[in-house]
């Protein structure tokens, strides 16, 4: 049994070029550049915000002087612990964390 090639089973397709329509250019498309009207304004506030962010980024995350002074006070036994202040801060934290939750 012979197998006919697929090309023999497909009717031959002929391509024809349709005539150009009036008012339509043929060839490469021409794109006209539109004037760019975008603009940006930097206000005084945004400048201050940027300076503040730059300053904050340059500061260390940990205040090493404060850590050293607390370590020294703990070692000397002179660090004063205020349990009422600690309880108050814990309560404030709890209130803030429950406000943020859905």
UniProtKB/TrEMBL annotation:
Pfam families: FlgM. Keywords: Bacterial flagellum biogenesis, Repressor, Transcription, Transcription regulation. Residues 1-33 are annotated as: Disordered. InterPro entries: Anti-sigma-28_factor_FlgM_sf, FlgM, FlgM_C. GO terms for biological process: bacterial-type flagellum organization; negative regulation of DNA-templated transcription. Residues 38-90 form the Anti-sigma-28 factor FlgM C-terminal domain. SUPFAM superfamilies: Anti-sigma factor FlgM (SSF101498). Responsible for the coupling of flagellin expression to flagellar assembly by preventing expression of the flagellin genes when a component of the middle class of proteins is defective. It negatively regulates flagellar genes by inhibiting the activity of FliA by directly binding to FliA. Belongs to the FlgM family. NCBIfam families: FlgM_jcvi. This is Negative regulator of flagellin synthesis.
């Amino acid at each position: 049994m012979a197998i006919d090639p697929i090309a023999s089973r497909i009717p031959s397709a002929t391509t024809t070029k349709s005539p150009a329509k009036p008012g339509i250019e043929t060839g490469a498309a021409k794109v006209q550049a539109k004037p760019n009207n975008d603009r940006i304004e930097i206000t005084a506030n945004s400048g201050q915000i940027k300076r503040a962010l730059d300053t904050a980024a340059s500061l260390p995350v940990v205040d090493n002087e404060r850590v050293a002074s607390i370590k020294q006070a703990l070692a000397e036994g002179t660090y004063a612990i205020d349990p009422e202040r600690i309880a108050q801060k814990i309560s404030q934290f709890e209130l803030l964390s429950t406000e943020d939750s859905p």
